[in-house]
Amino acid sequence: MIRSELVAKLAADRGISEYEARTIVKTFFSSIGILLAQDGRLELRGFGSFGLRKRQSRTVKTPRTGESVEVKQRFIPTFKPGKKIRQMIRDQNL
User: Fold this and answer.
1) Do 28 and 45 reside in the same domain of the chain?
2) Are residues 79 and 46 in the same domain?
3) What DSSP character marks residue 72?
4) Which of the two ends of the chain, N or C, has the fewest CB atoms closer than 10 A to its terminal CB?
5) In Å, how far are 19, 34, 43 from 4, measured between CA atoms?
6) Do residues 30 and 39 touch, judged by C-beta distance below 8 A?
7) Domain limits at 23?
8) Residue 55 — very low, low, confident or very high, per pLDDT cuts 50/70/90?
9) pLDDT class for 40, splitting at 50, 70, 90?
10) Does the pLDDT at position 45 exceed 70?
11) Please, are residues 45 and 82 in contact by the beta-carbon 8 Å criterion?
């Protein structure tokens, strides 16, 4: 599912305009980004938690030239599904 499909489903399920649904979805996703940037963690009970994982600096080789390049330390966003979500996926027998 892509964002526009999520907006259409939210609008249909809740009986609101697509503009209102788009605003809700946009606010929700931007809030997740802002909270991760500030606090580094967001937990939605029953759904899962978003967090940041620190990736250490390392030396890699450029495939084209073989030159060694230093990649700086950075933070990677992560998602850990909650128990209910894991159970739903497990029940689907994918």
Assistant:
1) no
2) yes
3) P
4) C
5) 11, 22, 25
6) no
7) 1-38
8) very high
9) confident
10) yes
11) yes
Same domain, 6 and 26: yes
- Please say whether the beta carbons of 54 and 48 come within 8 A: no
pLDDT digits (tens, 9 = 90+) for 63-92: 999 999 999 999 999 999 999 999 988 898
Domain identity same for 28 and 50: no
Residues 91 and 48 in one domain: yes
The total number of residues shown for the chain amounts to 94
Kindly state whether residues 23 and 61 are assigned to the same domain.
no
Contacting residues for 7 by C-beta, under 8 A, at least 6 apart: 18, 21, 22, 25
